[in-house]
Amino acid sequence: MKKLVTAAACAAAAVVLTVALTPAARAQRGAAAPQGATPQPSQAAAQRDAIPQRGAAPQRGAAPVQPASSYNGPRTSDRKPDLNGLWQVLGTAHYNLEAHSASEGVPAGFSVVDGSTIPYTPGALAKRNENFKNRLVADPLRKCYMPGVPRATYLPFPFEITQTPKHILMAYEFAHATRTIFLDGTPHMEDLDFWMGDGRGTWDADTLVINTISLGDKTWFDEAGNFHSDALKVTERFTPTDATHINYEATIDDANVFTRPWKMNMTLYRRVEKNLELLEYECAEHVYEKVFKEKAGK
Amino acid sequence: MKRLVMTSALVAVVYLQDTAAQAPAGQTPAAQAPAGQAPAGRGRGGQGAAAPANYPSYVRPVSNFVPPRTPDGQPDISGLYVAIGLPRGIETHVAPMANRTANRANSEYGFNVRNGAPKLPEGAIVRPIGVDPPDGKIPLTPEALARRKDIIAHQEKIERLDGRVLCLANGVPRAIIPAPVVGYQILQKPGSVVLFYEQNHIARSIPLDGRPALDPSIRKAMGVSRGHWDGNTLVVEVTNFTNNFENNWVIGAISATPGVPAESLTTGHGIPHSDRYKVTERFTPIDADTIHYEAKIEDPKVFTQPWTIAYYAFSRAPKDYIPIEYACFEGNDKNILLMTDTDISKIRVDVP
Amino acid sequence: MSTKRASAAASLAVLLSVASVAAHHAFSAEFDPNKPVMLVGAITKADWTNPHAWIYIDVKGPDDKVVNWSIEMGPPSALLRRGWKKSSMQAGTIVKVEGFAAKNGKEFANATNVTMPDGTRVFVGADDPVQ
After folding, report:
1. More confident residue, A205 or B154
2. Which residues of C touch A145 (CB under 8 A)?
3. What angle do CA A255, A259, A264 make, to 5 degrees?
4. Model pTM score
5. If we measure between CA atoms, which residue out of A56, A24, A98 comes closest to residue A239?
6. CB-side exposure of B241: number of CA atoms within 13 Å?
């Protein structure tokens, strides 16, 4: 983990120095920057001489001194990266966040967890392994319960972001689950339980940061039985790198289950096909179909 | 502004009378009928049935209100709303008093009218929400009525129980014939309007970009919406509805009153829909706080003609209103057990 | 306009607190208005869920046998408006429940009021009691 942070800090520094920023982009980013502000002398020099780096590594782990965003994609009227649209994660995180070989019906996959494995306490690890053994019965998703956070993000369905200055609505196909993120400065509601939690967001330069609490303890992180308690807090960072990619990082904090907070990372891909729209996965209908069939069979 | 006092016998659905219309002004038929008394009428459904024939013909509300604009030029109707909590009788307006039980508003009314519903626009007239055909009757084919009777008569069976009680998606327009206790949010982004219903957390995205209709093989419980702005009115055509279940009713206020037979059930419960079901909606901001709703409902396999409902649907939520997650299916199995003696808690399904 | 907001805001607490069960399903489909019950017992579990929050209480019957009852309350939004949160329903808390028993004769009840150990009586149903 430490090595990663150092490397990331170096990468971050490199990005700061080499990414060319147009004056317009600089004026857009900082809300405090007056219209048409001239860049600081040191940065002006960097601008003049810099060679734009395509596909500059996104910052991971380290918090940059100056938020250096390479984002040059579309922006909303309030100058934030425009995240409106349909997004989807590729990969196998929804099967299992940790690295795994293939098994029947499940492709092999890399870990999306920083540090490779989830830092369970010994007792919690035993519980996770028991969950895995019982997953066909114990996975709440198979009861058509809402997936919780962050699992909803990386389910194998597109999801739709509707972004306004004060609210961001995320709509998921699975069980028509939704989250409403409040960016209006209102405080969390404490001492409650919601399936999709209580999410409050802010913009950290071009990164959308969402803090979610009140997630209860009935959801899982994946099909492999990775779980949490009702002390869970999730901090997500959505960092768009261009018009069609977002680097997604979720920090999981739950002292009842893990020895320390840990992170997962993955890429959100914009679904760019023409005329796409969110469809439905009305899971409850499948439950009832099964119920009706069983009743008819009796 | 006159405070509209609600009593339990009062009709709550209103529309604004166009002063240029021919109907006499100031007519408030049955509006002050004391609780329990039925105005003269057809006598359908026993005590409380009333003929809507006294009401003037429906005229679309006229408003001088000019809403602000979104950054991309749409009339801005975004915000948090609560339902204008009104009884949702389509054909009549008075709840069968006999069906009320102690401490429960077990009726065609959505909520306790002591709340003091949000104020309605000046001159609004109170009437059932069925505005066309003029007599307000839902124009079912004989076959559809027979199916409806079977559905309503067997609500204790899980295969017939009201789909909304099963936590299936509410459909259109039913999701706007509300559960007034929870709210709505309208969001707008370039190229679309998104309606969010708190109850059962349903988001309905309405693209405005004139994209073609969806392949008929793709269907949604909430239908597929296509919208455009007609002046300050958002017009939405909704098609491609699923019809996987007999009990996924797309119309019908709150929940059906047990024991009331289909013929007397004036709220739209129990009406099935086919793959030809289509709704054309009009959302019109009347003032800064009020949105009027009209829906033309068509299904040649179910109705003898298209028919229309219209009422004031949304009022801006108070400043201290807190939207709260309203999950449904997750906490519902005990209720289903109590209602239908079916235990669904052991069912597991495959998921992608 | 401000009058309208004020009256709407003043009535919001009641507005939000009522009829969500009527909005979800009919009371009399599950519970019997002719079977009022009063149950006293310790909370063993609580589910803060929609459409209804549930608490489970161990009730000692006349035969001294302890039976666990499932008590249906209003939706979380209704409870919230009356000051109830998750920690209001802690396991071990001894409560008195007034309500109506299920039609099916099993140990389910719908709660109208719950009285807490300190004597506070909270309306927890989905409807206003004065109806």
Report:
1. A205
2. none
3. 90
4. 0.80
5. A56
6. 27
